[in-house]
Structure formats: C-alpha cells, structure tokens
Amino acid sequence: MAETFSEADERWMQRALELATRAQRKGEVPVGAVVVRDDEALGEGWNRPIGLNDPSAHAEILALRQAGERAANYRLPGSTLYVTLEPCAMCVGAMIHARVARVVFGAADPKTGALGGAFDLQALHAHNHVIDVRGGLLATEAGELLRTFFRTRR
Q1: Cα separation of 73 and 75, whole Å?
Q2: What span, in angstroms and rounded, lies between the C-alpha atoms of 136 and 3?
Q3: Which of 3, 32, 102, 109 could form a disulfide with 80 if both were Cys (CB 3.0 to 4.6 A apart)?
Q4: Mean pLDDT by 10 residues, the chain (154 residues)
C-alpha cells in the first residue's frame, strides 16, 4: 500500500532536500533533516561529520539538538522529523529517546537504514516509545541527490 502524505509533509521534505543540497555543496553526504511541531520548524540539520570532525554529526542528530535547545527540553513529543534518507541506528535511537512522534523519510537505505531498510529497530519492541514511520516521500529526488553525489566521488 502506498503511503499518503499531506501538503505540509511535502513542504517540509522539500526543506530537508534544500538542507541536503547544502551538505553536498560542503562535500558531505547529502542528507538533510527538519524537526517540526505544530507546523513550525524547531530544528534543522544537514550532514556535517567531515566538517565538524564528529562521527555523530548526522543531519538528524543536529536537527534534534537544535530542536531540543529551541524547545528547552530533551523530549520532543508531538514532533515529526523529516529526513531525506532512512535513518541509521544511531539516529533512530536518538529519535526514540527524544520521543519524536513521527518520522518521514525520503529514500530507503538498504545498507544502514534502521527503519526497515537493512533492519528495523522498532521491531525489537524493547522501548516503550514507538515512532510512526512513513517512508518514500520524494524518494526519487532524494535518491538522485545521493546517486549524483556518489557518482562524482568515484
């Protein structure tokens, strides 16, 4: 069954794609993320592990950090995290701890995706918080950004 997305979902994913393009311009893997609550951006991020010399500086982590600061709370109930690529295990763990209500991602990641791509962390049922996961929004655009980036690196 195909996922259904709202106009707001598409608008926020477009913003995540803009942030992914920013990462690409800096020589980083083009992934962008936005944390939204009540149709307001609380935090934004793009991949920056190379530039920050920080292996944890994934787009989602940076967006969650900014959202936590803005909300003055490490918990972000009622929020949606939009990200151009299916999150890895580290990022899914952070989303669970932040109590993100929903994640919407673009391209699936069969190598390291932790929400059904390579494996599904939520299927473990070890946490008392479950995130509503929706994948495939603007997946073609997100995937093409990644393919173009890696094609130029080879």
Answers
A1: 5
A2: 7
A3: 102
A4: 86 98 97 98 98 98 98 98 98 97 98 96 87 97 96 84
Place of tokens 């890895």: 88
* Token pair 């989602």 in the structure block, residue: 60
Residue 132 to residues 7, 43, 57, 83, Cα–Cα distance (Å): 18, 19, 24, 14
Task: Spell out the alpha helix ranges (H) of 26-129.
Answer: 49-52, 59-71, 89-98
Burial 31-40 (b: 16+ CB within 10 A, else e): bbbbbbbeee
Contact of 22 with 45, CB cutoff 8 Å: no
Which residues are catalytic, by number? Answer: 60
pTM above 0.90, yes or no: yes
Residue 44: Cβ-neighbour burial (10 angstroms; 0-12, 13-18, 19+): buried
DSSP summary character for residue 38: T
